[in-house]
Design goal:
The chain is about 40% helix and about 15% strand. It is of the alpha/beta class. Keywords: Phosphoprotein.
Length: about 160
Amino acid sequence: MSTFTHQCSAVEPVDILFVEDNPHDVTLLRDAFESVVSDRETRLHAVVSGSDAMSFLCRSVESDSDSPPNFVLLDLNLPSYGGTEILEAITAVPQLRRLPIVVLSGSDDRSDIARCYEGYANAYLTKPSDLDEFISLVETIDRFWFTQATLPSASI
C-alpha cells in the first residue's frame, strides 16, 4: 500500500489531481504551476468529470505501481456527478479518506461551502478568473500544502 508523503522536498515530485470541466481553467492552472513551482516536478492530472476522478483515484489505490495523488483540487459544479458527491465517494474509500482535498469553486453560496466542509473538504477557495489570480492561488497552495503542512500518511 502506498502512503502520502509528509512534507514534500525539492526532489520529490508532487502529484495533483485537478477535477475541472472547463479546459480554460485547466490551462490557467497548468500555466500557474509552471511559473510558480520550479524546484520540484509537479504532475497535474486533469480530469473533466466526477466519474473520471473516481476512476483515476481507484486505479491509483488498486495499482502496485501508482499511488494516490498528494492533493486534489476539486471543482464544485461539475456535470452529472458534482463535487459534493465526489467528496462523499472519496471518504467512502478507506485508502483515500486522508487525501487533502481543496474545493475550488466560483460559488460563494454559504450552503455550498457548508456542504463541502460537511463532506470533509480541507478547504474551500474561490476559483480565480485570470492567470495572475491563478498564480497567486498556486503560490499559496505551494507554500502551505507542500512546504508548511505535514500531510497524513495513508497507513495511519
